[in-house]
User: Fold this.
Amino acid sequence: MKKVLQCYICDDEFKIGIIEKHINECTYDWNIEEVDKPEEERIPVPLEPAEFTETLQRYKLGLKKQKHEESTNPSEKEFYPVPSD
Ligand SMILES: [Zn+2]
Assistant:
């Protein structure tokens, strides 16, 4: 599984766990630069490539699965049945 993803805005590579935060910052920086240009010269933020989205989703699913496996581990799970009468 891929551990790093390339930012589709600045082309730098980042760990998958922090890439979303980076994309937010990168988008913000992009817009700050563009806003100084005349309107007809501004370039919109590049669209998120499908491959990028897929890799990120696969990574998140992997995390969820890991968490699920941890929480269903019987040695860590304590269960108190509520008596009913
Ligand atoms: Zn970037």
About this structure: DSSP finds two helices and two strands in the chain. The pocket of zinc ion is lined by residues 7, 9-10, 12, 22, 26 (CB under 6 Å). The first strand starts at residue 4 and ends at 6. Residues 4-57 form one domain.
